[in-house]
């Protein structure tokens, strides 16, 4: 059995649903269809659908390309009080 300390903990992270909702709301605000957003981002329409469905298997480069077209930044924010595990 793999050591569970080697995997990132998922508790307390923003849900994929919240991220999906943000991407969808911004796309609609800009008046873009999923197809047009995919074309502008240089990704497949199914990738846009996967993002908006909150699927956890979307690649970071795809998220970044779509976020760029939407005029959004993805930011890594450290949570207060979190310490790195000891080696």
In helices, the fraction of residues equals 40-55%
Provide the gyration radius in Å.
16 Å
Oligomer: single chain
- Would you report the number of β strands? 0
> Span from first to last CA?
19 Å
Primary descriptors:
single chain; 87 residues; mainly alpha; 0% strand; disordered N terminus
TL;DR?
With 87 residues, the protein is mostly helical.
Protein described:
Helix 2 crosses helix 4 (60-70). The chain has 87 residues and is an all-alpha fold. Helices cover 47% and strands 0% of the residues. It is built from four helices and no strands.
Topology:
Layout: H1 16-29, H2 34-41, H3 45-52, H4 60-70
Helix pairs in contact: 2-3, 2-4
């Amino acid at each position: 059995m793999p050591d569970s300390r080697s995997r990132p903990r998922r508790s307390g992270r923003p849900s994929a649903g919240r991220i999906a909702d943000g991407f969808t709301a911004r796309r609609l605000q800009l008046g873009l269809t999923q197809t047009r957003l995919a074309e502008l981002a240089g990704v497949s329409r199914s990738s846009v659908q996967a993002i908006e469905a909150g699927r956890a298997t979307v690649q970071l480069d795809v998220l970044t390309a779509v976020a760029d077209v939407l005029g959004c930044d993805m930011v890594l924010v450290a949570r207060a009080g979190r310490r790195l595990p000891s080696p």
